[in-house]
Amino acid sequence: MGLSTEDHLQDDVHFDDDEGLPQNIPSYPLSDIHSLDSQNSSILTQHHPSLSDFSSSRAPYNAKYPPQLQRRLPRAFPLATVLNHPGSTHEIMGQHDDNLHSPLTHEQPHPNHDLSTVGQDYPPQQVPLHGLSMPGLLSKPALIPHIQAPLQYQFAGQMPQPSMQSQPQLINIPHMPQQYPQMPQYTQHLAQLLPPQPSHQHSQILSSSMPITSQLPQMSAQHHQHYLPPLQGMHEPPYLNSSYATQKRHSEDDISDGTKQRVAPRRADLFRVGPPFSEAVEHRPIFRGDTHERLTPHIEARIDRGFELAGSGNWIGYKRNYFTMVVAFDLGIDFSTFTNTTFYTSRNLAVGTEDVPINYFALNIEAKCSDSEAQVSLVQHTPKRDKGPQNAPPIFPAVPGRLPDHETVKESCNKRNDTKLELMNKIFNFDRDDFYSHQRHNQNTNNSVLGTYPQNKIARVARFERIQFTKSIRTKVTTMQHKYFTLHAELVGVLGSGSKEQHVVLASANTPGLLVRGRSPSKYHTEKTSGYRGPSDSENYSM
DNA sequence: TTCGACACATAGCA
DNA sequence: ATGCTATGTGTCGA
């Protein structure tokens, strides 16, 4: 990515009208969570504008995505089990049967469903969770050798020298002797040609464990200002005479600082660790069904491809390019405990509270815009890209797991070898049948949440590959407002079952602000002021 | 001006 | 080494 000819996201972000995507619908409803739980609520998530009224012409249920991009589970949900719980899901759900639909139960996208927004009852104030240690999961039965060390924001080795900040990360291949007899059109990172540089540290950042409470890009910058990520094309424009290079040179915020070169599409170093995610923010409580202990969710998430840190401190991605994101969660209990109990959440009623069983957990990603008036959605391509279908990113039913390291995610990409695929499956997926057989687990037991998971593949780690910001984003240059995106990793609780299945966001973690560059080179200069710059004007930033 | 569609190019994979 | 694949991105034209 990095080196595209793409411009940036403009000052204003809209959906194209001709795609039927309504504007001015807040992507983050800020209604208080308690008000959401009032008796008048049709269901847990009903206050979301896209959920509250399926038939509303103003805010259709699937407002956020066009029909072809409706959210869906990777697999069907065949079970219709309803947990036996004092909270009585039956009663709760029974109040609003007609409104209870779950696109997640459909294998195919459903034009009237948008799970992506179900239960996004984000509280007005995000309260960081504490005590995010997760001792138990280290002892879970599955052997996952790729697990990274948890919870520390790690910087490998020594910090790079300040001078590195101004040193080129890329060189033009023609400058390399003998290697390329013909004038190449692509560049190669210095890191590939020279001994390890400080930029290497970047890939070792455990982004998911970096507590960041602000979404502002500058917040991330402060954690990275001491080293230089592997940015692209720092100097030496390959096409000095081309309009392409000329255009690129106008950007001060540009990672390559005017040295735009094409990036080889399969270059290994397209995989880079992106911005760190915040700690999990709790949206709804999670209780154990057996002890009624309130649990502290922890979300691990990392972007492994598609974003890089510019000198200005902004994380930059490109609308036309893929990004990859992985998400895992745990509840602060060991895996065997997880598999031997049930869970429930609660909602507030006008009088008292009501417990609602969680049939299973799921992991989801969302994109949001700093401008709550603007909506942003994501699409996922198949390897066939244009020749294949395009859907919204799936929502993964998931059990607690640990995030594989960056290299593992990178290695998991585009493997076709059966042996390798199987290996990756063991890392990213949870085989419940295998677990039952090895644990002699009583799968008929009524007190295990595992029994109410979908029958098909369950994730340990949700891996979202080939994700792009929707093409529906378009820009407008009439405002001076700074706009940026954030990516959110969400732990979803699936309530009810069958046609009554509901999804509520239990917790989420988010990136700092991201700049996503569009495809119009003519907007390149404007980009310098379109992105959030933080308290100090990064226009003055010099690499 | 923007974007879908197509095209080109190149590194990874088997 | 060879051929296929995946994907960054250049380009055309509606």
TrEMBL record:
Basic and acidic residues bias locations: 1-13
GO function terms (MF aspect): DNA binding; DNA-binding transcription factor activity
UniProt record, GO biological process: meiotic cell cycle; positive regulation of transcription by RNA polymerase II
Keywords, in A-Z order: DNA-binding
InterPro entries in UniProt: Fungal_trans_regulator, NDT80_DNA-bd_dom, NDT80_DNA-bd_dom_sf, p53-like_TF_DNA-bd_sf
Region (Disordered): 1-33, 96-120, 382-403, 517-543
Residues annotated as domain NDT80: 236-528
Gene Ontology CC: nuclear chromosome
DNA-binding region: 236-528
Pfam families: NDT80_PhoG (PF05224)
Protein name (record): NDT80 domain-containing protein
